Amino acid sequence: MRMALEYANVPYDVVYDEAVLNGKLGKYDWLHLHHEDFTGQFGKFIQYQDAAWYIEQQKKAEKKAEQFGFKKVSQLKSAVAEKIKGYVQQGGFLFSMCSGTDTFDIALAARGVDIVPPAYDGDPVDPNAPSQLNFERTMAFKDFRPVFDATEYEHSNIDTGPPPSQMRDPSLDYFTLFDFSAKWDPVPTMLTQNHVATVKGFVGQTTYFNADVVKENVTVLAKAPKRGHVKYLHGQRGRGTFTFYAGHDPEDYQHFVGDPQTDLSLHKRSPGYRLILNNILFPAAEKKKKKT
After folding, report:
1. Which spans in the chain are helix H?
2. What confidence tier does 168 reach under pLDDT thresholds 50, 70, 90?
3. What does pTM read for this prediction?
4. Residue 228 φ/ψ, nearest 5 degrees
5. Is residue 30 in a domain?
6. Distance of alpha carbon 231 from alpha carbon 245, whole angstroms
7. DSSP assigned state of 28
8. What pLDDT is attached to residue 11?
9. What's the structural domain count of the chain?
10. Is there a domain that residue 290 lies in?
11. For residue 139, what is the DSSP state?
């Protein structure tokens, strides 16, 4: 996303947990989340636990949790998720991609419930965790099941994307944008505006959303044909809105840790990135109150 903002010469600020918890979101109209893990499981990258970058990331997160009076990183991240939800309810625009989508709702549903395996926080998952999830707190998803296996590179059954060992042929992976009426559905129309109706797929830690756990009041913007998996969705919460777009990089089908970033100058007409641009421009289209 930062690549898209920089390529389009859109100024932005980078904000982290501290700014969110200190109430700084109120100064912004629009917030983007990408590869965050709001469950406190460090992205479930346990296979990299001996890597210097992973160790450093964990130390920083644990230090930040302690700084704000939390015993665990999961508690810190849960508080951050609640602050962001409040930002949306008060009129903010939230756009999220990859694991910043499903882990956000998982953290909201699991507020006060330990769903983190001991490999990440040192103590066991609450045995009654599944029955204690509160889906009224979530933005887009309901009735999902968290994955409690620390070694499984998956957070819940919200994601329907295949694991890396079972990657499908990229040429067969695509999704279709829904057609909306500009008169009756102006916001979905803006968010799906593109020069093509069919967009090539791309994977991430969260690749597609399970249609069975999408809330009824959420607008589905794009699906994978025949499979019915949701790629792109939009909804309202309070006075604000949220848009979730599954996948990591529209022009890098399978992006691995350490891979170089995409050169957007080589993809000037990328339909996948056009959807990101729609979300960047969307807040500017909000109707302003007219003087009387």
Report:
1. 2-7, 17-21, 52-67, 73-89, 99-109, 118-121, 129-132, 186-192, 271-281
2. low
3. 0.92
4. 75, 5
5. yes
6. 6
7. -
8. 84
9. 1
10. no
11. S
Convert 201-240 to b/e letters by CB count within 10 Å (16 or more is b): bbbbbbbbbbeebbeeebbbbbbbeeeebbbbbbbebeeb
Q: Parallel, antiparallel, or unpaired: how do β-strands 219-223 and 230-237 relate?
A: antiparallel
Quickly state the pLDDT bin for 261 (edges 50, 70, 90). confident
CA distances from 3 to 11, 43, 172, 264, 277 (A): 11, 21, 27, 8, 11
Q: Indicate whether 291 belongs to any domain.
A: no
Largest Cα–Cα separation, the chain: 63
Task: Concatenate the DSSP letters of all residues of 226-288 into one string.
Answer: TT--EEEEEEEETTEEEEEE-SS-TT-SSPPTTPPPP-GGG-TT-HHHHHHHHHHHGGGGSPP
User: CA–CA separation, 199 vs 270, rounded Å?
Assistant: 9
Instruction: Give percent above pLDDT 70 in the chain.
Output: 93
245: domain CATH number is: 3.40.50
Question: Contact 58/109 with Cβ under 8 angstroms?
Answer: no
C-alpha to C-alpha distance for 159 and 140, rounded to whole angstroms: 13
The domain in which residue 254 lies consists of: 2-285
Model confidence at 290: pLDDT above 50: no
pLDDT tier at 167, thresholds 50, 70, 90: low
Helix (H, G, I), strand (E, B) or coil at 115: coil
Residue 43 lies in a domain: yes
- Compute the Cα dihedral for 183, 188, 193, 199 and give only its sign: negative
Query: Taking residues 62-72, what's their average pLDDT?
Result: 96
Token digits for 268? Answer: 């000037």
Which phi and psi (to 5°) does residue 252 adopt? -135, 95
